[in-house]
Specification:
single chain, 3 domains, Rossmann fold, alpha/beta, 18 strands, 6-stranded parallel beta sheet, 597 residues
Length: 597
C-alpha cells in the first residue's frame, strides 16, 4: 500500500483501523473537502459504501442500519451546512441509543473566521447530543501521529458502542490538495509510512486499541429480596415498553407466569408477537385502559416496567393515576426514563438476566388468579368489540391498516411505523400473533422527519421484508430519501396514509377552533404521491378500498423492488371512526359489567 500525500496517509490509517474494529457500513455524501475520507473508504474492501446525495437522508439511512444491526455505522460529509443537515439524525440517535460515528470534513484553522467559502464553526456543533466530539489535527505523518490516528478510530468505535450507545463526532480539517495526487515532500517520515503499511491487515486482527467492556451481574441477595417482595403481591402488572430488552420475550412471560401478573406488551417491545408463550400477554389495552370504570377495577399494587414509557397515552395516564403503587423500573442503560416521576426503585441490570434470576428465585408457578383473569377477560371483550367494529366498516379507517397487515405480513417481516398517528394505531390495532414480526419506529425524539430514509436503512440490512407505514406529512418531509430505494435496488413496501394534512391534530383540543385549525394545524397540501413514485421509478398503487389494499400489499411482498401504496383518508372521518371504536369497546365492557352484577 502506498500513499499519495499526508492527507491520504492520515485518512487511510484511520479508515483501515475502523475496519479492523468492526465497521462494516458507511454512508458517504459527495463533497470536495471530504475527498480524503471518501476515497479512503472507497478503497477499503471490508466496508460497504452507500452513497447519498442528501446529507439529511444519509444521516437517517445510517441511523436505520445502526438501529437494526446494533453496531456502529459511519457517515461522511463535506464542510459547511452539509454538516448541519445531519443534526436531526444525530439527535434521534442520541435519544434512541444508536451508535452512529459521524465524520465531517472541515477547512483548516487558517481559513476559519476569514470569510472562506463553505466554512462554519463545526466545533462541537452537535452539542450534548453526541457522547464525544473531537476536532482532529490537520494531517501529518510521523510515528506518533499515525499511532494517534489509529487510537482515535478505536476509541470512536468503542465510545459509540459503550453503554449507553450513541453517536460520536470527529471533525477533520484538510488542507489542499484534497485529491489523491502525489506529493512526495508530504511523506518525510519513511519509518512511519513503513510501519503503517506493515500494520494494515485483515479487519479484527491485532487492533491498535482494543476495548473490553464487562457487564456487572445482578447481586444475588438483592434479587432474592426483590423476589420475596414480589411474591407478596397479588395485583401486579409487567409493562414492556419500547426497547424493553433484546431477546427477552420468553423470559419475561416465564416470570409473569411465576407471579401471575399480566404483561402489557407495547408493540415496540418485541414481546407482543412471536412464537414464544404469549398466554400472559395483553395486547389491546390501549382501547380499554382509558375507560374510567375499567381502570377503577384494575388497580395495581406493583408495576414492573421494562424499557421506555409505552406508546399508549391511556396506559401512561393509567400508570400516573396509580402512582401510589410500587413502581419498579428495569433498564440496562444508565438512563432515567421516568418523566412521570413515579418510580420508587430502579434496577440497572440486564433485563433478560434479571427475569431469569427472579424466576429461579420464585419456587413453583402461580396459577392464573382472579387478578389475571380480570385483565384477560377485559382484553378479550375489547378485542372482540374492535374486530366487530372494523369488520362492519368499509371506510378506509387508518387504524384498520394495521389490522389488515396483521393478517398479510409473512413470518420474519419488519414493520416500521412513522410517528404521530401511525405508531399509535400500530400499538392499538396490531394484535398479538405467533408470527415473528419485528416492530420499529424512531421513538428517541419522536420526530416525523427522516422516516423514509431510516426505514430504508433498516431494510437494506434486514433479512425480512420491510414494510413502512407513515403519514403524508412525514412522506413529504423525506421524499428525497426515496432515491435510496432506486439507487440501491431495495425491496420495500411503503404505505402512505394521505389524509391531506396533520391527522393527529384532529384529536387535540386545537381542532375545536375552526377559524385557525385548518391553515395552522390541519395544513392541507392537496398533494398525491403517484408522481413521486414515477420520479424514482418505483411501483405505485392507489388503494381506494380494502380489497385493492390487500392485493397491493400481497403483490408488493411477492415481488422485488419498492412499491408505494397510497391510502386516501379524511382527517375528520378518521377521528370519528376512532371514537366509534372506543365507544364500541366501552359499550361492550359496560354490558359485561352489567351481566357480572
Amino acid at each position: 500500500m502506498s500513499f499519495e500525500n499526508k492527507n491520504y496517509a492520515f485518512a487511510e490509517a484511520f479508515v483501515d483501523e475502523l475496519a479492523r474494529c468492526g465497521l462494516r457500513h458507511v454512508c458517504i455524501c459527495p463533497g470536495s473537502r471530504s475527498s480524503p475520507l471518501a476515497v479512503s473508504f472507497a478503497r477499503n474492501s471490508h466496508i460497504k459504501k452507500w452513497v447519498h446525495l442528501d446529507e439529511r437522508s444519509a444521516g437517517f439511512f445510517a441511523l436505520g442500519m445502526a438501529k437494526y444491526l446494533h453496531q456502529p455505522v459511519a457517515i461522511v460529509c463535506s464542510s459547511g451546512t452539509a454538516t448541519a443537515n445531519l443534526m436531526p439524525a444525530v439527535v434521534e440517535a442520541h435519544y434512541s441509543l444508536v451508535p452512529l460515528v459521524v465524520f465531517t470534513a472541515d477547512r483548516p484553522p487558517e481559513l476559519q473566521g476569514w470569510g472562506a467559502l463553505q466554512t462554519i464553526d463545526q466545533t462541537r456543533m452537535y452539542g450534548s447530543h453526541v457522547k464525544w466530539s473531537v476536532n482532529m489535527p490537520t494531517p501529518e505523518v510521523s510515528l506518533g501521529v499515525m499511532a494517534f490516528v489509529r487510537s482515535m478510530a478505536g476509541r470512536a468505535m468503542a465510545t459509540a458502542n459503550e453503554k449507553p450507545a450513541g453517536p460520536v463526532h470527529l471533525n477533520f480539517p484538510f488542507r489542499e490538495p484534497l485529491e489523491p495526487v502525489s506529493v512526495p515532500d508530504d511523506l518525510p517520515d519513511s519509518e512511519a509510512v513503513r510501519q503503517h503499511q506493515a500494520y494494515c491487515g485483515r479487519p479484527g486482527e491485532s487492533l491498535f486499541l482494543g476495548v473490553v467492556s464487562t457487564y456487572t451481574a445482578s447481586v444475588s441477595k438483592d434479587v432474592l429480596r426483590l423476589a420475596e417482595g414480589l411474591k407478596r403481591y397479588e395485583r401486579g402488572i409487567i409493562v414492556c415498553g419500547p426497547d424493553a430488552g433484546e431477546d427477552m420475550a420468553g423470559c419475561v412471560v416465564a416470570l409473569a407466569r411465576k407471579l401471575g401478573f399480566p404483561v402489557l406488551a407495547d408493540c415496540l417491545s418485541q414481546v407482543r408477537c412471536g412464537p414464544h408463550d404469549r398466554s400472559m400477554v395483553i395486547d389491546c389495552y390501549d382501547a380499554f385502559i382509558g375507560d374510567k370504570e375499567v381502570a377503577e377495577t384494575l388497580v395495581p399494587d406493583v408495576v414492573i416496567r421494562f424499557g421506555a414509557l409505552p406508546v399508549s397515552k391511556p396506559l401512561t395516564q393509567y400508570l400516573e393515576r396509580h402512582h401510589t403503587a410500587r413502581h419498579i423500573l428495569v433498564e440496562s442503560e444508565p438512563l432515567w426514563r421516568d418523566p412521570l416521576h413515579i418510580t420508587c426503585e430502579v434496577w440497572r441490570t440486564d433485563p433478560v438476566r434479571l427475569c431469569a434470576e427472579l424466576s429461579n428465585a420464585i419456587e413453583g408457578e402461580s396459577s392464573p388468579g382472579k387478578w389475571y383473569r380480570q385483565w384477560r377477560n377485559v382484553a378479550e371483550v375489547a378485542g372482540k368489540a374492535i374486530a366487530g367494529e372494523l369488520a362492519r366498516s368499509e371506510q378506509l379507517f387508518e387504524g384498520k391498516v394495521f389490522t389488515e397487515l396483521s393478517t398479510l405480513l409473512p413470518e420474519g417481516s419488519l414493520l416500521f411505523a412513522g410517528n404521530s398517528m401511525p405508531v399509535r394505531d400500530m400499538d392499538t390495532f396490531f394484535p398479538s400473533t405467533g408470527r415473528s414480526i419485528r416492530f420499529m419506529c424512531n421513538r428517541g425524539a419522536s420526530g416525523i422527519d427522516g422516516v423514509i430514509s431510516t426505514a430504508l436503512g433498516v431494510g437494506s440490512v434486514s433479512s425480512g421484508r420491510m414494510v413502512l407505514v407513515l403519514g403524508d406529512i412525514s412522506f413529504y418531509h423525506d421524499m428525497n430519501g426515496l432515491l435510496a430505494a432506486k439507487a440501491f435496488g431495495l425491496n420495500a413496501t411503503i404505505i402512505v396514509i394521505n389524509n391531506n394534512g396533520g391527522g393527529i391534530f384532529s384529536f387535540l383540543p386545537q381542532s375545536a377552533y375552526e377559524d385557525v385549525f385548518e391553515p395552522y394545524f390541519g395544513t392541507p397540501h392537496g398533494l398525491t404521491f403517484r408522481a413521486a413514485a414515477e420520479l424514482y421509478g418505483l411501483d405505485y398503487c392507489l388503494a381506494g378500498n380494502w380489497s385493492t389494499f390487500s392485493e397491493a400489499v400481497k403483490g408488493s411482498l411477492a415481488r422485488k423492488g419498492t412499491t408505494i401504496i397510497e391510502v386516501p383518508g379524511d382527517r375528520k372521518l378518521n377521528a370519528q371512526l376512532h371514537r366509534q371504536v372506543r365507544d364500541a369497546v366501552a359499550a361492550r365492557l359496560s354490558r359485561r359489567e352489567g351481566a357480572d352484577r
